[in-house]
Amino acid sequence: MSEVPPTRMNQQVFKVKKKAAEGGHKLLKKKADALKVKFRDYAKAIAETKANMSSDAASAFFSLTQAEYAAGNFKNKVAEGPMTARIRVGAGVDNIAGVKIPVFSLYETGATADNQSLGLVGGGKKIQNVRDKFTNFVEMLIKLASLQTSFMTLDEALKVTNRRVNALENVTIPKIQGVLDYISRELDELEREDFTRLKLVQGKKESQMEEERKRKEAEKTMALKSGKSVGKENSADITAQFDAQDDEDVVF
Length: 252
What we know:
It is a single chain. The chain has three helices and two strands; from the N terminus they run H-H-E-E-H. By secondary structure, it is mainly α. The longest helix has 118 residues, at 124-241. The two termini are 104 Å apart. 9% of the residues are buried.
């Protein structure tokens, strides 16, 4: 704080900084609250998806066992045939309170299903059931992957936001407030010094004016005393020396 000059200009500058820091703290606090709400939603969705996946996986693999029992071992035929993807994974971005969250989605390519001849001898319905079950299972996997990735990204963003909120609340704003308090104390001290100096100057001027007034009154009193005695002497001399009979006639 000592390196900050205690001036009015610096006081205004740090007041603006404090206002900006408090505004940023409020915005980050709102952002953190929004991320927390979304974070809880993702956690709930992941828990529900995982709970459903256990039953979906069990159902899919059980249907595969049933199809192998009905149609025989058809895995080699599937592996030898052409492999064209009917579904693919697409990636997108979702914006949550300024945080970009990756989102995975499933879309169909429009290709026809390969190995349509499987199950002609027997077990065709079971094989189709396996296709449907594993398609549903893949959709659940993609959904879970999207939720897990979004959850981790949101968790990192929430940690960074909370660190910024704590830094503003516990470090930046108290530091700025400390500087403002230091500047206020120094300015108050300067004002008190100026007030004391002005009081001393005013007291000195008043004492000088009082001395000057007393001196003038003393001079006036002495002048009045000396003026009265001179007036009496002049009056006596003029009356004693004046006689109209002693004057000679003036002839024009």
